[in-house]
Structure prediction request, 317 residues.
Amino acid sequence: MGVPERQVIVLAIGGNSLIVDKQHQAVEDQYAACAETCKRIAALLKRGHRVVITHGNGPQVGFILRRSELASGELHSVPLDSCGADTQGAIGYQLQRAMHNEMRSWDKPLQVATVVTQVLVDAADPAFEKPSKPIGTFLDEAAAKVRREKDGWYMVEDAGRGYRRVVASPRPKEILELEAIKCLVDAGLVVVTVGGGGIPVVTQATGELVGAEAVIDKDLASSLLAQNLGADLLLISTAVEQVCLNFGKPDEKPLSRITAAEARKYLEEGHFAPGSMRPKVEAVVEFIESGGKAGLITNPANLDRAVAGETGTWIVP
Prediction:
């Protein structure tokens, strides 16, 4: 199975894929990793596909929060929604520059534009009552207590490694800049959008938007974007070439092609880890169940081969 030419592809890149390892976390290292992924994206563009790029931002938000903590004696703190906006701009810039450099020898290089994107969430979402998304650095028990009492943070102990702040992860309801995104896609631009799942905002009784101390799952937001755009393919880039049953066990079984119903069954049986493969499979299943044609999960090195039908895990109606 492969994708015919001139299709609209929503491509979700994981924030962790921009960081190879702990020895390569600097901005220049992230750019180098970004440039490698952009080579694969360029191959898709050469085939005539229109690509809309989304991305994660977990490690990058963590870096901003840590800098804010270290500078707390001199500077104001950075709210979580602003952290999301900052990373959308920074990662969008890296993708724009890398794509420009990759296409510089083309006769007609494409324009790449980043849209700083707000995503509406429901202030009554149950996730706000039960924060579950870890962010930021590990703290000892005393420091965690101070944060609880002074800042009202929810803190959890993490497997003996210390305490971390957890925030809500509400479901995305509406992409507020959708019409602008559609205009850019229709004009033939490569669009970078919904970075980090989008900047979470809620609507007050007055109709005013305010930022929320939350993190939206970028795969679910990418699925919503793909549905709204009527995309032909939702392509999720992750750490493995194929989704596997019994991952990491002696009876590990890679999946090449499954239906959305089969994927839903595997989800119910608990085959995929929460916070890892589970949200990716859920995102693709939601896209298919909402009328999408196909979803594909693979790693950055195999993006173009997977779209050609040579590898990856395809999820179809």
